[in-house]
Amino acid sequence: MTSGETSPSSTARRLIRATDRATLATALPAPEGAWPYASLVLVAVDYDASPLLLISTLAEHTKNLQRDPHASLLFDGTGGLDDPLTGARVTALGTLQPDDDRVRLRRFVSRHPSASLYAGFKDFSLYRLQVTRAHLVAGFGRIHWINADTLLGPAVDVSWLREHEPSILAHMNEDHAATIDLYAQNLLGLNGNGWQLTGVDRDGADLRRDGVVARLDFPAPVNDLDAVRQSFVALAQSAKRVAMSQ
Fold first, then answer.
1. What fold does the segment set 8-152 form as a domain?
2. Confidence band (pLDDT; 50, 70, 90) for 5?
3. Are strands 21-27 and 36-42 parallel, antiparallel or unpaired?
4. Close Cβ partners of 28 (under 8 Å, ≥ 6 residues apart)
5. Which of 33, 134, 182, 185 has the most crowded CB, counting CB atoms within 10 A?
6. Do the domains spanning 8-152 and 159-245 agree at the CATH topology level?
7. What is the DSSP letter of 4?
8. pLDDT tens digit sequence for 154-176
9. CA–CA distance, 204 with 191 (Å, rounded to integer)
């Protein structure tokens, strides 16, 4: 890995966090003969970047998972490239299991506001991918298998973030809306006003405006509320410097 180049695990983890949809592959049963079945799904992520899905029991992929939980999710980061094969994509493999954690469900609905219309339906359930390993293709010659521990990082206590994330989002969205737009416009090169934060984790924050999502990285991983505040302040200063230089 050359100087300034991110590690394969960091590249894969960031792509998973930055993507709000994926291609889910499950196994059809006999008499189809265990054919792979691919479907489009909306995704969010847990604090450690484990993928989360909110899916209906009526869907074919959910029926498949109830028989065989082994699955893979393809996250595509090649949109907008003249040659998609030069872009990054990662396939996360593991088992998709039902999950009744209300905080994880909250994170999914925050990522996908339209999901609030059906999140409480009895035939919809949250699923979490227990990642076994991932396969990253980040352009020609940049191909890596990544194990789960390396992809997700070490287990750390995020109870403080689980408790305070809603108040962080409310404070930023209600009191610092203009600053969030500065992040989007000057740090991420995005257009328009009205960007909202939908999630915060140790590595950064998720943004959304209408149907567009984006990823804002912190200068370094955070381990407490004060580090979150300092990171947002540092990013705001960077965004203002960019604005003044234009």
1. Pnp Oxidase; Chain A (2.30.110)
2. low
3. antiparallel
4. 34, 35, 36, 37, 60, 64
5. 134
6. no
7. T
8. 889 999 999 999 999 999 999 99
9. 20
- pTM of the full predicted structure? 0.93
Asked if the bond preceding 221 is cis, omega within 30° of 0, the reply is no
What mean pLDDT, rounded, does the chain reach? 94
Return the sign of the alpha-carbon dihedral for residues 219, 157, 132, 40. negative
Q: Which CATH number is 159-245's, of 3.90.180.10, 1.10.10.10, 1.10.3720.10, 3.20.180.10?
A: 3.20.180.10
pLDDT digits (tens, 9 = 90+) for 72-128: 999 999 988 899 988 999 999 999 999 999 999 999 999 999 999 999 999 999 999
**32 — pLDDT class (breaks 50, 70, 90):** low
Tokens 């869907």 correspond to what residue? 59
**CA-to-CA distance for 136 and 13, rounded, in angstroms?**
10
DSSP letter at 134 equals: E
**Percentages (nearest 5) of helix, strand, coil residues in the chain:** 35, 30, 30
Residue the block writes with tokens 């889910």: 24
